[in-house]
Design brief:
4 helices, 25% strand, 5-stranded mixed sheet
Length: 146
């Protein structure tokens, strides 16, 4: 069983996958979107990735505002979640608070000396790793405290 992590956006979808023992999140790719209203190519690519890795659960970044309120990005994410449910009926999809995922990853990459161009190319995949790793850390911490 593997878990897929997604950082959803109008232009790109960052994708990460867990290792088989659900400890580490690994980057897969950034799916480039043709337009904010086009989903067919993204859904097809996600289907291929899920088949390749044997994914049984999906963690979708949920971009709440810093005060915990829900804005337009959250509404678009919920709409995408519903679209995913229609295409992957048996897949469990969990919304995961992703506040500061892109910002923290961008800062980390800059501190590591990665160029602005490389950061822009890889930020969505890095955010997906961050989102999924947060979920994995949470479930593994919960298991050790039971």
């Amino acid at each position: 069983m593997r878990i897929l992590g997604i950082d959803y956006g109008d232009k790109n979808i960052g994708v990460a996958v867990s290792c088989p023992n659900l400890v580490v999140a690994l980057g897969v790719e950034t799916i480039r979107r043709d337009s904010p209203d086009s989903f067919k190519g993204s859904i097809l690519r996600l289907r291929e990735i899920m088949r390749l890795y044997g994914v049984s659960k999906l963690i979708l970044g949920y971009p709440k505002n810093m005060d915990g309120s829900i804005g337009e990005r959250c509404e678009k994410t919920v709409e995408f979640k519903e679209r995913l449910h229609r295409n992957f009926k048996s897949l469990e999809i969990i919304l995961w608070d992703e506040r500061l995922s892109s910002i923290s990853q961008e800062r980390l990459m800059a501190e590591l000396g990665i160029s602005r161009n490389k950061i822009r190319e890889n930020i969505d995949e890095a955010a997906a790793i961050y989102i999924l790793q947060g979920y994995l850390d949470n479930i593994n911490h919960t298991k050790t405290n039971d």
